[in-house]
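User: Hello! I'm new to structural biology and keep hearing that structure can be predicted from sequence alone. Could you demonstrate with MliC family protein? Please show me the input and the output so I can see what each looks like.

Assistant: Of course. The first part below is the input, the amino acid sequence of MliC family protein. The second part is the output, the predicted structure written as tokens.
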Amino acid sequence: MRWFTPVFTVAIGLSLAACSPAEAPPADDAATPPASGSTEEQAPAPETPSTDAAPLPQVMHYDCEGTPVDATFDGRGQVSVAVDGATYVLRTEEAASGTKYVDDAGVVLWTRGAQDALLTRPDHPDRTCTGSPAAPV
């Protein structure tokens, strides 16, 4: 019985060590020092494109109970809404469901799902909207 406790402890320790994540390999972009005796400066490596490239804007054409509305979503939390000859820039606001875009003047475009939205403007009735994506250029 005296050998059981240490053996059991070692077995648990080895099991836990086997479950731990492996260390990440070193990054490939680490700069290598110039060869000894070399006085030449090396040209900097060309910049590689960022993987955080700006998202492409998405344009939706909405029919809001007979009122045409074009919305350009920038993919970064803003939408530009063109309606009745005016353009509004709205920003994302927290919503219980869907995505709600608002501005300080009280214009709201509240999207629900891929194609449905609600348009609210001061001094205008609220309008239920059905959208379709614009054809790619």
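User: So the tokens describe the shape?

Assistant: Right, they're a compact way of writing down the 3D structure. Reading them back into a model, for example: The two ends are 77 Å apart (CA to CA).
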